Structures are given as C-alpha cells and as structure tokens.
Amino acid sequence: MAASRSCSLWSCCGRRWSRSMRGCCLSELHSSWSGDPLGARLLSQEKRATETHFGFETVSEEEKGGKVYQVFESVAKKYDVMNDMMSLGIHRVWKDLLIWKMRPLPGTQLLDVAGGTGDIAFRFLNYVQAQHQRKQKRQLRAQQNLSWEEIAKKYQNEEDSLGGSRVMVCDINKEMLKVGKQKAFAQQYKAGLAWVLGDAEELPFDDDKFDIYTIAFGIRNVTHIDQALQEAYRVLKPGGRFLCLEFSQVSNPLISRLYDLYSFQVIPVLGEVIAGDWKSYQYLVESIRRFPSQEEFKDMIEDAGFQKVAYESLTSGIVAIHSGFKL
Ligand SMILES: COc1cc(O)cc(C/C=C(\C)CC/C=C(\C)CC/C=C(\C)CC/C=C(\C)CC/C=C(\C)CC/C=C(\C)CC/C=C(\C)CC/C=C(\C)CC/C=C(\C)CCC=C(C)C)c1O
Ligand SMILES: C[S@@+](CC[C@H](N)C(=O)[O-])C[C@H]1O[C@@H](n2cnc3c(N)ncnc32)[C@H](O)[C@@H]1O
Asked: Which of 7, 152, 268, 290 has minimal CB crowding within 10 Å?
C-alpha cells in the first residue's frame, strides 16, 4: 500500500516525471549507441549522475523519495518520543534556539517545510502569542480609561492573540501530518495554523508569499537539495529569511569519536526497542554522515541566490542553524 502510493507520488508527478523521462531516453539512446565506446562512457557517467544515496546505500533518484516516505510513515507515531529519548531532550533546546534566532515580528507569515509533527510551528505560535500579549499589556497599561468590556474583547479575539502571525506546516508525509494535527488538537492550537501536504522540491505556493521559511531536520531527506533551496527562494517575499536547522559536522576529534559511538551503537538499538524499527534509525545516522559540512551547505544556500548567508554550530557542531536572506 505504502509502496504503491509513494511510487505514484515519486515517479509520475511534476519535475520528477521529467527527470525519470530523461532516464528513459538515456537508456534508449544507450542501446542504439552500443557500438560507440566514448558515447557509452559518457552515457554511463550521465546515468550514474541520476544515482543518489539513501544513508550509505546507493539508490536511483526515483527510488529515494519512496524510501524516505516509508521511513517517516513507519516512525510517525513514535517520532516525538524517540526524539526525546535519543537526544535526552536536547532537540527541544535546538528548536527553541531556531525560534529565538528568527525573532518573528507581529504579522509574520511563516512557512515550515518538512514540518512533520509541528514542533517548529507550535513553538512559533507560543512565541508570537507571548510577544503579542506583552505588547497588549503595555498598550492596556497606557490606556487607563478603557471599560472592562473593551479589555475583555481585546483578550478574547483568538486570531488577534497572534498579532496577525500565521504558520503553514508543509510536509510530504500524510502520517507525520496526521500526528501533528492530533497534537495540535490535544494542545488546543487552532488559530493561525494550517497544514498542507507538499513536496519541498515543488512547493504548492505562489511566488513571494512568506516572510520566513524554516526547515528543521528535513532538508537532509530531500533528493534534490538544490531544488528545495530554489523553491525556498521562490516562495519567500523579497526581504524574507531562510532558516535551516540540520545535523552538521563535529570538528573536535574526541567528541566526534564519542558521537560516532553513540550514533552507530546506541541509536539504532533505541530505534528497535522503542519504535520497533532499527532500519529507519540506521538511515537517520547514516544520512547525518552524508550531509554536507557547515561551509559546503552555506555555499549551496548562496548558490540558490540567498544573501548574507551565515551559520551557527550548536553542541559542538552536532547541529547547525543556517540563515540567509532573499534581498
Ligand atoms: C528516521 O529519521 C528520523 C527520526 C527521528 O526520530 C528524528 C529525526 C530527526 C532528528 C531530530 C528531530 C532531533 C532529535 C533526535 C536526535 C538528536 C537523535 C540523533 C542523535 C544523535 C545523532 C547523537 C547526538 C545525541 C545527542 C547530542 C544527545 C545527547 C546524548 C548523550 C549525551 C549520550 C547519552 C549516553 C548514553 C545513552 C550512554 C550509552 C552510550 C554509549 C555506550 C556509546 C558511547 C557514547 C558516549 C560515551 C557518549 C555519547 C557522546 C555524544 C553523543 C557526543 C557528545 C557531545 C557533546 C559532549 C557535545 C530523523 O531524521
Ligand atoms: C526528521 S523529520 C523533521 C520534522 C520536524 N521538522 C521536526 O523538526 O521535528 C523530517 C520530515 O521531513 C519530511 N520530508 C522528507 N522529504 C520531504 C520532502 N521532499 N518534502 C517535504 N517534506 C519532506 C518527512 O516527511 C518528515 O516529516
């Protein structure tokens, strides 16, 4: 069921279709040129270029999306508990730091891509609500002669309690979004929050629409990172900001050794014990090792057109926050 769903999603739609078409044309050409060694060599190089990685495994670009889909479909229900267990809660601090770095202004329109179960969106809503309440209190203190009805009205309007800020969570995985929506319902997040099924490589939004684009622990899973970065650029308003929280590279050799030990010896075991899924957590640690370094990723963000690109490494480089502006 999952395989057939993701197959149609990943090989037959939009740009991916044209990519797979390119693959088809190449193999047809290959057979007609079989007597030409140079042509055959060039073609086999081209064919290799359509290969990518899924953790330490080499797979075709068409296959990767489906495999990533299966990973998150499988872990969705245990995703949040796994994160707390594996990181001893540290992922919460990293996500808080992302929001503090963002410092959203009243009225901010945020797009959280690969938003999964909503951790970034909920933090954003908490932040803007607290900020708006502080502002309201300051205003009320300044307007001493308001009636109690007027004061109550100011507090009751839920939409207004966010000062016009909104967040759109976009993720390719139905199961992750389902868990996110359940969490939102249980924690009573309603206003200013929307969920949409969509691919980071082909966002279902118009150009110049959002003030801020975030992607947390998501971009590592995308097949064509350059394409996702271009899409981030496209949907941001001029002056808009790109923020990415992702695993990165640890530079200290001693910490790196301990980190490797923990990653490869402990995490898949926790994955098996808690989520009954060794393979997905093996993919997690392998995909982290495959992801570009802080500097390499900064170059990729600049290549997509962003300016003033900078990053901050956290927890010895286990993760980094990259930031850039569409100017
Ligand atoms: C399928 O894909 C995914 C599934 C998911 O559930 C999540 C994601 C995306 C990830 C997130 C949303 C973030 C949350 C998840 C994680 C942080 C998990 C990934 C964690 C790592 C890759 C390792 C880094 C972990 C930490 C920084 C957390 C702190 C952990 C410790 C302090 C170690 C705890 C020690 C033990 C449990 C004792 C047993 C350990 C051993 C026998 C191995 C030897 C290890 C050590 C001696 C210490 C370990 C040292 C380190 C971790 C490095 C030290 C670092 C510093 C001192 C800065 C997703 O895509
Ligand atoms: C590790 S989770 C991160 C979730 C959330 N941002 C967080 O920080 O907890 C990675 C998410 O990326 C999503 N994802 C993977 N490939 C994607 C793509 N091409 N487009 C959109 N989302 C994608 C997965 O479905 C998954 O929900």
From this structure: 152
